[in-house]
Amino acid sequence: MDTSPQAVLRSLQGISGSVSANRYLTAAGLTLLIYDTVLTLGDEIRLVWFQPIDVTKLVFLFTRYGVISALLSVANVTSGMASHTTKVSVTHAMLCQGWIIAVGVSTILSTASTNFVLIVRVYALYDHRKKILRILIYACVLTFSIGMVFGALALRELIASMIWEPLLYRTCILTSQPHYLVGYWAPQVAFELFTFLLTIFNAAERPRRAQSKLVTDLYRDGFLYIFILFWIRVLNMALSAVPDAAYNLLTPFFTWSVTILTLSRLVLRVEDMRRRAGTMHGHVDALELTLQHEAHVEAAVAGRFPFITVNTVTTEAVI
């Protein structure tokens, strides 16, 4: 292998396209995620911060702001600014190793969070059937465990092949392809495909629920979330199988942003529909009490039946 300066320079110039694309895609994904966070901050405060907390909301907050923090670190390294912001006591080799470990752990936690939301959504569409919940949990644990094994092996390969390039890009680059990385994404794709098919089967099994606008919205949003997540992970799996190491980490950071953006939108949308449904039922209850009160007053004035019992108006009739 030719290790002369000219050969090294030619090899570095050969990956300029993928390095530049990685920088721009990472910056675009981070900008998009921050912009959407600012855009939906009012809804987040109204629907999350000012409401009783639950597990889904905690996962939402952890995932949204944890990924933003992780992507800021990624952008710092991929942009080349890390060479100026790194402490003198930290070598660039240590920076790359620590950085890829942090990214790997964040990716695993993010995957767990998105799988949790996926389970909650499909479970709700099946009217909270315990059997469906058990099936989803077993499928998630199985695929996630397989992914964790391959993820740990891939992370070991990434640490060994990640180096600091100080000449042209001043960033961390891969020198060899991580063979186990595709094994991390494949089980996640299988789990998304499984939940996708469950959603389609449920919609086909009970078409009568399409008459409800609320349920229709839930199906549409849940279907879109699963559909987008499925193709994002298919893309990551496909690129991780490309023999050229320069393309293995080309899109994960951008697709990471899109995944969290979609997840955040879904959680906020569901919380908004839940509150609107609760408000609607509250108005129905108030209307029932008003009708009963008016009936009693009219009966008392007429002097016929002071203790008349009035049938309540059903929720379905009012709606």
Automatic annotation (TrEMBL):
One Pfam family named in its UniProt record: DUF6533
Keyword Transmembrane: yes
Secretion signal, residue range per the UniProt entry: none
Residue intervals of the DUF6533 domain: 24-68
Keyword entries, A-Z: Membrane, Transmembrane, Transmembrane helix
Positions of transmembrane segments: 58-79, 99-123, 135-164, 184-203, 223-243, 249-268
InterPro entries for the chain: DUF6533 (IPR045340)
Keyword Membrane among record annotations: yes
Protein name: DUF6533 domain-containing protein
Species of the source: Sparassis crispa
